[in-house]
Amino acid sequence: MFLSGKLKTALSVLLFCASMGHAMEEKDSIMTVYCSQKGIDKVLFYESLSLNQKRAYKNFFYLNLPKLTANTAIKTSKKDYIKFLFALAEVYNIKGEEVKSIGVLKEIKNNKEYRLSDLEYMNLLVALQKSYLNLNLYSNVFHINSEIATLRKQGVPFPLWSYNIKSQLYARLFLYDKAIIQLKSEIKELLHNPERDALIIPSAYNDLGFYYSLNNNIDSAFHYYRTSLKLSGQHLKKTHLDSYERLAGTIKGNMAVLYFKAGDYKTAVSLLKEDIAVTLKNKDDNVCAANSLLFLTESESRLKHYAEAQKAIALVEKLLPNITDPATKIYFYKTKAELLKSLNQTEEAYQLYKKAFYINDSINKIRQHRLLEGNEILYHLEKQDDLIASQQIDLTKKRQNTLLIILFGLLVTTFFFFLYLVNSKKKQLKIQKMNAEISSKNRLIKESLSEKEMLLKEIHHRVNNNLQIISGILELQNSAIADPDAKVVLQEGQARIQSISLIHKTLYQSDNFNKVPFQSYLNELIGAIQKTYRQHYVSVQTDIDAQNIELNINTAIPLSLIINEIVTNCFKHAFKKTTQGTIKVTIKKEAHGYVLCVQDNGIGFPENFNPKDLHSIGFDLIQGLTKQLDGAFQWKSNHGTEIIITFKEIVN
After folding, report:
1. pLDDT tens digit string along 292-322?
2. Fold category of 12-282 in CATH
3. CA angle at residue 12 from 123 to 233, to 5 degrees?
4. Kindly report the CA angle at 449 between 447 and 453, in degrees rounded to 5?
5. What pLDDT, in 10s, does the model give residues 228-265?
6. Domain positions in the chain
7. Where are the beta strands (DSSP E) in 522-603?
């Protein structure tokens, strides 16, 4: 559970840190030089800074650069004013004020008097693309991608360090196969670009290794991480030592994730210590340092080096007051809770789990609000674009009318012929306008469907995360309870939650968000049950046949709970008198619905067995859910147990 969180946190950290430049200058020096400049020279000084420097002093520039809006000398020069607006939009973007950034960029784009060059228009599109990406307005990002592609075909230079925006977009959508293919294409273009610096290719190969790790292709991930280390050692180490150390630390931290996943915690610890040494030395990225230290805590805990783990988590607590990133805070509370749980401090661990849960819930609400706010702002901006376009059309019509009056006076002899041409042209324009409106509506419908699919995927993902946290809380409660009966009840409740959680996990990993593929779902569900109830003296083989069975979520959840109860009972009770066991689960579609059959070769039911007389929560749950599915419940006991349930798919 925590490895998954680590990988997600590492993704955001990687995408933020991949473009590391030279070490920052002293804070007072940059602020002093900026304040000593006047007018447009302040903007030129800002442009000369590296991206890391701009990020480091984002609060200073956010407060001071907008003051130049009132500078008369800048406003009277179109060239200087455009340069200032580009800088202002970047300041807003770095600060996280994407809406303000888009507003400034739209002002540049909509004012035809600025007459942007092709290069300036390319920079405008790239800046808009970054802001839309941060607002999760993916349809707008794809739309801008097509405009950028057109300019690139015309030979317009593309900003070098914006090469990976498209692959980042695919990664954010969890389309790692496409992200890998896109990034390889971007690297190929970089290799043919003579303007590239010594850092960009090693950084790109590090990103490629990271995408392979997210796609569970471990061998390829290691290959590209090592390629990145080799190239950075050849081209960076001698000339840009600081950049080399930063990138090498990041790569080793990423490799540590893979070793951790493979169970080689000692190697992971060694690599993480090298990464942390570089990060703490530079003192300019508390988030990167905290995430690496938290991962070190997990690795040391797996090795049962609890004293070392406590030292690492203590360093994170010192950094925490300077960290605003909520994902890092959630990771801290979860990691510390796990450490305290290992040290039998269950009550303190439970409290930290609660904190992580509340922060995670607040993040979900913030993201939803951010998405809705972004769409609302986009709507207003598009309305503004439509108003400007309408005004330009009105102006064009006025000019056309004036021209018609002049031509009428000069060419009276050709009036009727001219009138015919005008009417014909109007009809043609009307038809073209109607066609354009139809095309626009079709595009909007497609974009709306795409956004709804992304929202559905995000909802299933968040539901799965929340159910996992609840499962973790139940596990903590279980470890603090001595009563064996109560522990069994909690364990069964946790198993039921996991079966529902797995439904949502299967849906957000699937291409079809409406149907659950039951073959793959049952393979994972029954595999998890088998691990939970594995008995050393019994070998149990499972046979699952649910090929081509796909059910909607309203049917899948009650059916998964039924199968969970039956198969769990098989593992717990069926094989008490044997050392070899078999469980077969079959789902088939028939003319009037579906048939679920669960068989085992165990001891079978006792004589005169009747589930209605048991007063068992499990069998009551099975029968109740069967009724919910408009089904029927049967059982047989002959050389084992066979339970047959016929049911129908629930349709809303």
Report:
1. 899 899 999 999 999 998 998 999 888 888 8
2. 1.25.40
3. 80
4. 115
5. 999 998 988 888 888 888 888 899 999 999 999 889 99
6. 12-282, 533-647
7. 539-545, 550-552, 580-590, 593-600
